[in-house]
Design a protein that fits this description.
Shape: elongated
Number of strands: 0
Structural class: mainly alpha
Radius of gyration: 17 Å
Number of domains: 1
Low-confidence stretches: none
Largest sheet: none
Order of helices and strands: HHHHHH
Strand content: under 5%
Length: about 140
Amino acid sequence: MARATRTRRFEDAALLLGRLLMAALFLVAAYGKIMGYAGTIGYFRKLGVPEPSIAVPASIFAELAMGLLMLVGYQTRLAALAIAAFSVVSALLAHFNFGDANQMNHFLKNFAIAGGALAFFVSGAGAYSLDASRRL
């Protein structure tokens, strides 16, 4: 029994670390968009994103919401699905130039993030989360 408890604690700690790392990615991305707002509008315009003046704030809001939800482990499965969808759409919109090795790397990174998010969808947030405290 002690071994199973140690294993579960290790798994919960790994889920916490994974959530923190994923949250950091989205929170830092949102911060970067806020700090370079005009440049982000221009970049979205260059990519052909419709209505950049609406898409940029929506993107910032989504990244902040997903990052914060993952950070505290609240509605983690729903946040994970949103992250997976957001990452795939971002890859398809912004990193589709496969002739550029850097863009190909970003495309694959976004799909890897989507894969990690799907793992959170299956596993949940773990014991160190608001989701777990709501079940008590």
